[in-house]
Amino acid sequence: MTPRAAFAELLRRHAEVRDLSSATALLAWDQETMMPRKAAAARASQLATLAGLRHERFTDPRLGDWIAACEAASGEFDDEERAGIRELARDWRRATQLPRDLVEEQAAAESAALEAWREARARSDWPAFAPHLERLLDLARRRAAVLGFADRPYDGLLDDYERGATEAGLAQLFDQLVPRLAPMVAIIVEHAGRVDSRCFRQPFDERAQEAFATRVVAAMGFDTDAGRIDRSSHPFCTGIARGDVRLTRRFAADDLRPALFGIVHEAGHGLYEQGLHAAGAAERPGAALLAEACSLGVHESQSRLWENIVARSLPFWQAFAPVAAEYFPAQLAAVGAEECWRAVNEVQRSLIRVEADELTYNLHVAVRFDVERALVAGRLAVADVPAAWNAAMQRLIGLAPGNDGEGCLQDIHWAMGGLGYFPTYTLGNLYAAQLWETAQRELPRLDEAIAQGELVVLRDWLRASVHCHGRRFTASELIERATGAPPSSEPFVRHLRARFGAVYGVTLPG
Amino acid sequence: MTPRAAFAELLRRHAEVRDLSSATALLAWDQETMMPRKAAAARASQLATLAGLRHERFTDPRLGDWIAACEAASGEFDDEERAGIRELARDWRRATQLPRDLVEEQAAAESAALEAWREARARSDWPAFAPHLERLLDLARRRAAVLGFADRPYDGLLDDYERGATEAGLAQLFDQLVPRLAPMVAIIVEHAGRVDSRCFRQPFDERAQEAFATRVVAAMGFDTDAGRIDRSSHPFCTGIARGDVRLTRRFAADDLRPALFGIVHEAGHGLYEQGLHAAGAAERPGAALLAEACSLGVHESQSRLWENIVARSLPFWQAFAPVAAEYFPAQLAAVGAEECWRAVNEVQRSLIRVEADELTYNLHVAVRFDVERALVAGRLAVADVPAAWNAAMQRLIGLAPGNDGEGCLQDIHWAMGGLGYFPTYTLGNLYAAQLWETAQRELPRLDEAIAQGELVVLRDWLRASVHCHGRRFTASELIERATGAPPSSEPFVRHLRARFGAVYGVTLPG
Question: Do B407 and B351 meet the contact criterion of CB atoms below 8 Å apart?
């Protein structure tokens, strides 16, 4: 078989596996948005069948032969094709390295842990969840060992989400970042009275909320001919296929912010998914293999950039405060852009990560990173997690949870097997600020454009700088190519200092 | 391998193939109701991939070994299991008999024919469609020959839709039915002035239409925890899985009837799909293999029974005319049950099958059956279809189309390869009337219950008599078991005579 023929076989099998993934994504989307209640058991069976088939088709040993044939003749392929072969080979090796019984044991353990976690959280009952976490930790370590990370299990977990990231590298980023956040928070909470968010804490008609948020998403350039927006109990974005990116949202009856920032966040993810196919992935075979997200951190950088850096900026509210006043004249006609802008940048020490503001958010992640590293390394026993958690919360945020339900049981991630997932949230924030600084430099009139409601100019810059590359580069390489510097926490610190200094009228340490 | 072990393998593979079918059904439902426009190409690829995998998994030669092992030890299985093995074996033999290139050629020919048909219908251009029908006929004959129907190709086509039905048997049913319809029609059109449907031909608010129709569907006992209702440009029902049966509908702004009768029709299909799983299909292995529709005719009997026999009856309107008046006081507050009932039973000679009333509907089917049989047998050339069609329309309905777009090009069925499909519509009408006569006999207070809006009593009777058997029996066996007599056109003729005699106040011949 010629290398080109082997490559053609690889592309065919890749397309088949991609189609199975798309079908799986549609089943999962439907489950959260449309599926009738009594279909749950049948849906679980359908998802398991597709997962099994996908695994079987993808781990076919013939793929190894085709990959080897392509790798042995790399001169026959262009750069993009070589990168595509490299990524496919990496996925194939990881999939074939993991023995089926380990994968199945992990799936069963996660399923049991999820159920136990829901109950344990409701009852604030850590001991009920502890044996599940014990088992998941054991499986995670075995998994890391199989994948060649026996000595550095946390790196093995990270590799699932942020290829190339390491525990040591992350620790360095957090060490730079965390000590600079606490002093900022301390100053701001002393001036808490300078921000008044009552204008957004009023009853808002749900249909008007929907219409307003949809208008913002349209201004961002999200293409609803290649996607849609529905409701679900937890907002998410799913890239089902080329031309099919779906967002979901929910509403709060007495606060405009959750619906607005929720959908802007998901639309940030959605623009990335739509942009993955912008570079002709259907036309060039190399591009077809690369049209996937680079990493969770890069994905999150897109959502956080739009949600926080753009939609909580003064120029954004210069454009959209008058629009909001059209939809909600009774509540907002008398409220100006500055007041809106301050109200969406309220800082508070709080217990719950998903409700945290931009300034304190990464402290929540730091708590989890600390606890998680210690767990995976075996320095912390599962039984001691609540104490370690509460101590870290007190130390970093200055608050301790009243119970484990609002403490170490608040997040779903561990229960779903997502050890090593949390740090990607902070990476997303750092990448976002670094990309934003570069965009401002390269597009000198960007703030003016945003103040006119012309958000598409930023989408187009992100498309060209980030989206169109898919997974051709690692996250670190991608950020360096886009911004001229390796990932750093400096731009993010500069951003926080400028923003919250201005919002609260204080001078913050850098 | 023991017979029981072989049976377990069969069940496992059956479940896998069923899950692939469910995923396919969801993708297809989504395509008609939710999918964004630019996802079309990706969706086509997903559907093709799932179809290919399904075929590959189902035609695995090992299934033949497992089937043989079960068939050789049939004493080890109970009646239900034996029936399940028989049905699975039949499907497997048909799937494996058809060579892949024939299946693919057929799929490609249908795809091309569909596109050509849409254009040809719009331009009333039979010669543009003719070569496609020629090709589909050739493929259909080859298909029938492969399946063992070389001498009786029309029976081979019927076998896809109505297992066990034959051209000769159908011809006999039509020969009994058709000569008795024309005299009824002739009498009624002389008294056309006795029915006035203007009360339904007014503007009706769409949300109120939706609410009213949903209330009727709820009264029928359609379980929306195990299904849902959405919109699509052509209404349909799809049984995606156990606990997941979905209906769609559309609305006419100036006529209440299309939305109402459309959704009642689809809900009739939907109750059948929900009832297939009523008999514990998840618990007993034999039942799991049998929980599929018996035939298209039986499926259609359920939709037509609800749409025509129930929802166009006087007792139904005694219950629902007051309900309709609640939703549409301006249009219907002054309209009584009798007037509604007459208005939904208006008879007219017409050109378009899907708009035809209950009395003339089967004459439209008879036209198609005549033309189709002659085509398949080679007695009629494709080029001569328009002339044959128009002559049959004139003879049976007394009208000739002005062009082929409203004549022999009106239906999608031939273009989608559905030769042999049309007669199942008439079988549905006959089965429905026969089941209804039996239900009335066995439930003496059925009319009273319906007049009280208690429709679930009929659903439960149908569930026990028809739905729960799935495909355990042939349609003919099923009808005979449920009604005590083989399928016949007599109950239907009696029904028409009684109904239209009463609506038009005339005595009709029997």
Answer: yes
Q: What angle, rounded to 10 degrees, do the helices at B40-58 and B79-97 form?
A: 120
Q: What is the pLDDT of residue A283?
A: 76
B56/A contact by beta carbon, under 8 A: no
- Alpha carbon A55 to its chain centroid, in Å, reads 25
Burial class (CB in 10 A: 0-12, 13-18, 19+), A500: buried
Decide if B22 and A42 are in contact by the 8 Å CB cutoff.
yes
- Closest-CA residue to A399 (of A371, A426, A360): A360
With beta carbons less than 8 A apart as the criterion, state whether A271 and A221 touch: yes
Q: Which of A295, A297, A302 is nearest to A270 (CA)?
A: A302
Q: How far is Cα A243 from Cα B326, in angstroms, rounded to an integer?
A: 44
Please check whether residue A145 touches B, CB under 8 A.
no
Contact A225 B37 (CB under 8 A): yes
Contacts of A26 in chain B (CB under 8 A): 26-27, 30
* Mean predicted confidence (pLDDT) in A335-344: 96
Written as one letter, the residue type at B344 is V
Residue B228 pairs in a beta bridge with B246
Q: Is B102 on the interface with A (CB under 8 A)?
A: no
Residues of chain B with pLDDT > 90, as a percent, come to 95
Would an 8 Å CB–CB cutoff place A101 in contact with chain B? no
Look-up of token digits 């693919």? B104
3-class SS string, B264-327: HHHHHHHHHHHHHCCCCCCCCHHHHHHCCCCCHHHHHHHHHHHHHHHCCCHHHHHHHHHHHHHH
Q: What is the pTM of this model?
A: 0.94
Please name the amino acid found at residue B462. L
In sequence order, what are the residues at sequence separation of 6 or more whose Cβ sits closer than 8 angstroms to the Cβ of residue A314? A337, A338, A341, A502
When scoring A14, A27, A49, A277 by the number of chain B Cβ atoms within 10 A, the one with the most, hence best to mutate, is A49
Collapsed DSSP state (helix, strand, coil) of residue B160: helix
Evaluate whether A33 touches A230 at the Cβ level (below 8 Å).
yes
Among B80, B81, B110, B266, which one carries the catalytic annotation? Answer: B266
The verdict on A231 touching B (C-beta cutoff 8 Å) is no
Residue A238, phi then psi, degrees to nearest 5: -130, 130
ipTM score = 0.94
Which amino acid is residue A358, in one-letter code? E
Q: Does the distance separating the beta carbons of A228 and B41 come in below 8 Å?
A: no
Q: Where are the alpha helices (DSSP H) in A347-470?
A: 361-377, 385-396, 423-442, 446-451, 456-465
For B335, which DSSP code? -
The helix or strand, by DSSP H or E, that contains position B249, with its residue range, turns out to be strand B244-249
Segment B228-276, tens digit of pLDDT: 999 998 899 999 999 999 999 999 999 999 999 999 999 999 999 999 9
Token pair of B471, please?
């495909």
Dump the DSSP string for B32-87: HHT--GGGHHHHHHHHHHHHHHHHHHHS-HHHHHHHHHHHHTGGGS-HHHHHHHHH
Residue A391 in tokens = 């101590």
Q: Which of B39, B46, B240 minimises the CB distance to A23?
A: B46
